[in-house]
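Run log, item B.
One chain of 308 residues. Sequence copied directly from the ordering sheet:
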Amino acid sequence: MGIRNQTQMVEFIFLGFSGILYGHIYISLTFLAIYLVTVLGNLMIFTMIQLDSNLHSPMYYFLSHLSCLDICLSSVTVPKMVVNFLQQQHTISYNQCMAQMFFLMSFMGAEAVLLALMAYDRYAAICKPLHYSRLMNTKVCTVLAFATWVWGFLNSALHTALSTKLEFCGVNQIHHIFCDLPPLMKMACNDVHINEVADHMAGVFVGGGPLLFIIFSYVFILSSILKIQSTTGKRKAFSTCASHLTVVFIYYGNGILNYQAGNSLATGTLVSIMYCAITPMLNPIIYSFRNKEVKRALKKAVETWRKS
């Protein structure tokens, strides 16, 4: 059977929620509430950064891109879950599956690189304060942010193109809650060696590379902070990194848990819900509660709204 004919007739079934027989409407409403909180929370952060001149700095510029990525990441998966629970039919067409995987991998890859850029921004601010304005000027930040999105899309385009060559021979049950590369490769009945090599390379460069960069950046940051004489100065330096480190731990913690989940469908489902639904909702909360400038901007926005 030709690939073109195959793609027109294949419909996949998600098995991640197959054990849930009752309460679909309540689960659907729960996911809808999570999605709305995610969109509104990240949109609030993005809007405050654009409107408040006190937040017009590289750190918050990258944070605005993180908010956009979180909205996009959640939008790729959660609305489909809501619809499937309402319809009580966890299916997705072949074309929708490829599109979902493409955008999911794009935004996940871009977020990993963006977190690395945010670590570099903290490194430049703390370790190279005299050169910070030159290292992180507007042009540099714009180019880096644009490159982050391009990198995510190019990486995903490669994997998606390779995935269109997979043959499934009538097997249409995905052991997951959305379309992702590993479960699709397990379903394939043809040779997936090239896909596996590309996946491993992406794991090293797209996932591991930014993580190593973040680790090395914070080694230098920690070294510089320890050299600060005043306790107040140390506390202030640590506070500027706390929110970013928390987001990094959550992001890569989910990645590690997902890797350790192995073939466990239940564990994989829970971890997947964490990084596609819960984490994008938590990020604006983390930056709102742990960052004084964001809290100040939020308070100012609320006061302005009340007066109007």
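Observations after the first pass:
- The chain has one domain: 10-307.
- The chain has a mean pLDDT of 86.
Flagged for discussion on Thursday.
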